[in-house]
């Protein structure tokens, strides 16, 4: 039995992804990596009840803290089913309120959406099965050409994004831009990591779930905008393509990560079930390399650290 690790599976798209994984992977162990053990246990009960899956566990992981990432690795690696067949980096936030910091003092959207999943992935690499998949939940909002109404990302090094200089932008725009930039970072990471793993059968892909109203992602928006997101946006799916329910997107994410239909997909970007091109910036090899090396520097990982083979 191998493990499928899913972050952000206590609600929204990740929960539905875990539900689908439980249906299509009855003989694997599902690990719900979450910061709130009560929510993790509720998700497990719910999924077990609906699918009868026997091997779902939760393990503490708070992406706001790199220490928590290291503790997760320690706990995961010492349990019996520590070979990973799929890692699904799905957890993410969009903070449009006052800027917040992670435990290490990084701007929180950047820290939670990029730095911690990057670190988690690097530290888990030695435990990957030779055919493992690594999937990042990105977002179409990273691409200005998609005209999603979100501010365009601005590429910067990890250090500049971790310690941003104050901007004259409104809170909402600044927070949204940090979010779209973090999603561009996910895709740049996917392409760079796949290149570094090119002599292996491990596949690394990015997934855009589309607009999925009603999840917890809008939790820092004003009550009015949350109301619109929960009650008006869901209706858009009848008129606009790429507006989805969490159930539909979660299912697609699970299939991309585990189903045989995607076993040849390496270093690709999927909008739902469709492989499409991501933004022009995401293919910029210099950006990919700069983000990679500056994130490694930020994490202060040294060449000789044995657990990290790709530095
Ligand atoms: N909804 C959309 O329209 C949309 C569109 C494009 C992309 N996405 C992406 O889809 C992914 C899932 O979002 P969602 O819409 O399903 O939102 P959601 O309902 O808010 O789910 C986010 C998940 O991430 C977890 N999480 C947040 N901060 C965490 C932390 N510090 N440590 C560990 N886990 C943490 C949350 O756990 P808690 O329960 O503990 O808060 C929750 O399980 C995100 O990466 C998001 O960027 C969403």
Key traits:
41% helix; 311 residues; eight-stranded mixed β-sheet; binds NADP nicotinamide-adenine-dinucleotide phosphate; 10 helices; alpha/beta; single chain; Rossmann fold
Structural domains: how many: 1
The CATH superfamily is known as NAD(P)-binding Rossmann-like Domain
**Broad CATH class:** Alpha Beta
What's the total count of β strands?
Answer: 8
- Most strands sheet: 8 strands, mixed
Q: Order of helices and strands, N to C?
A: EHEHEHEHEHHEHHHEEH
Could you give the distance between the termini?
29 Å
The helix content, as a percent range, equals 40-55%
Low-confidence stretches: none
User: Which strand order do you get reading across the main beta sheet?
Assistant: 3-2-1-4-5-6-7-8
Total helices: the number is 10
CATH topology: Rossmann fold
Task: Give the helix/strand layout.
Elements: E1 3-7, H1 12-24, E2 29-34, H2 37-51, E3 56-60, H3 66-77, E4 84-89, H4 108-124, E5 128-137, H5 158-162, H6 171-196, E6 203-208, H7 223-231, H8 233-236, H9 246-258, E7 269-271, E8 274-276, H10 285-299
Parallel strand pairs: 1-2, 1-4, 2-3, 4-5, 5-6, 6-7
Antiparallel strand pairs: 7-8
Helix pairs in contact: 1-2, 1-9, 3-4, 4-6, 6-10
The structure holds NADP nicotinamide-adenine-dinucleotide phosphate.
